[in-house]
Amino acid sequence: MLFTRTRQMVFWLLLSCFACFAEARIVIEALPVNLTDFRIDYYIDDSQNLDYPEVRGKTFSETASSTSLGTNARVAWYRLSLENRASQTLDLNLHLPHAYHVQSIRFYEERDGTLVRSEKLNLDQPADTGLMFRGSAIYQLTLPAASSTTLYVRSHAYSHQWFALNIYDLEHSRRALVGVSNDIALMVGMMLALVFYNLLLYFATSKIENIYYSCYLISGLVWIALSYGLVASLFDLYGQAVFMLNLSLITMPIFLLLFMMAIFETRQHYPLEHRCLQFVLVPLCGMFIWGLFDISAALKPASSVALVMMIVTLSVSISLLRKGNPLAKYFLLGHLLFVLFNTLAVLFYKGLIEPNYVASHGVGIGIVLEALMLAFIISHRIRILERIRASQDELKRQAATDPLTRLHNRRYFAATAEALLNQCRAQQQPVAMVMADIDHFKAVNDTWGHAAGDKVIEHIARILKTCSRNRDLPARFGGEEFVILLPDADLNQALQCAERIRSEVERSRFDIGTDAPLHVTLSLGVTQLDTAHDSIQSGLSRADEALYQAKHAGRNRVCFADTPSRTSD
């Protein structure tokens, strides 16, 4: 029994040792070749100084052909063994679709234990080797029939080791390079459209949150275009200078925090939440300054700072929601989507979950979804402000309007008439005034009641509106008395207007529910103002004198008061 157990232990020990030194082997038996999911070996070079002969003796671990080893694997070696079992030589292309975001790549091709070829790709000088095409590094392989070839690939990343290998025949290689980054171009295009829209909104409204949101969008689209290869694909730009654009990963949350402060007006209404946002904003600004000098080092704590920022912004939005802010629920929804997809991305970048499209593109998806929700928040806020403005306008209208007649009231007339007089004075235009009073109106109320009196007043108000020009200013001056200011009208024009009103009232009959309809008349006083010397008050006094004359002359008539002649002292 003891011998049997010892033999089993030795067997499993030998099996474990064999597994450690065994290579992940890729068997190719015939064309076509379209390999995007297979096993490879990797080794993390913590010293960042190992060369090909030294790394061959190291113990490799196995991983998928698409992998993320995290931010602590700046230099990683990948090994894949290709066995050609076909009866013909195969010409293949090895694609590294994420090569655009690394610092350098080295290829070592080994056959029968002998190095047969090596290539070095420096992303600061990609044209020297001709290995880069639209953001992908392409290494051409020729596999002799019935032979094995081992490839070592050294990847030196700026920050995180996000790596993928694909193996294609020539036809599939061409297909793989068609339509690269179409999904990313769609994301960037959507955000670019939002940028222009919000800049137009800023010019229309002068709201600073539109500027912050536009800057947030610009930072987001720059990072998406850079990190997912659109910049490399469209412009063939790589290396350290382009890697500096990763500063947008820091500016994006800075502008998001500023946007929150502006859209929620935290400084004015939520001082505690404002201080919390400032607490996160300060280290982010420090990271940005740090990144100007050492972007790779500045990005290392980015995940931790992003976690703190997400916690604070979520807490602030929940607090604002509890305090009844109408925009907080929409921001919370958009930010939760952003946090969800960014959490997947962080787990992917740290190598804690298996690579997939959603995880590898999590930051981009989260940015776009949150950007769309922030755009909705801006639009919803504009709608709220329009409702408030409409409500305020309605209150102003009610404050300036007589509720019975819908004519302007005395207070509005006093303020507006003075401005119209000044305007006519500046333009050297004449100004006239008409005052009107319902004859024997007290008898109407006493005989037929106040409801009948209100009908009379409403009807006469409608006649005043009908007989006045659009530029005229009719108003109910009090009780049964009315006044009209006529800009750009002389005394004769005012008299004609007053006569039209008088005759129209005289012809009117009011049905008050009795056999005989009610009949009333109107007395009117007219004057022309001396724009050089008169005020509205002096004009009202003369118009009132003319109205008094009409009353004493028998009512139901129009009288006028001349502008008093003025002599110099």
Q: What number of structural domains do the residues give?
A: 3
| Helix and strand composition category | alpha+beta
Instruction: Please give the alpha-carbon distance between the first and last residues.
Output: 140 Å
Largest sheet: 7 strands, mixed
Could you say what the CATH topology of the largest domain is called? Rhopdopsin 7-helix transmembrane proteins
Uncertain spans, ≥5 residues at pLDDT below 50? Answer: 1-6, 8-21
**What is the 3D form?**
rod-shaped
Mean pLDDT: 86
Into which percent range does the helicity of residues fall?
40-55%
Protein name: diguanylate cyclase
GO molecular function, one term: diguanylate cyclase activity
EC number: 2.7.7.65
Cofactor: Mg(2+)
Record keyword descriptors for this entry.
52% helix, Alpha-Beta Plaits, alpha+beta, Rhopdopsin 7-helix transmembrane proteins, 569 residues, Immunoglobulin-like, five-stranded antiparallel β-sheet
Provide a brief overview of the structure.
The chain has 569 residues and is of the alpha+beta class.
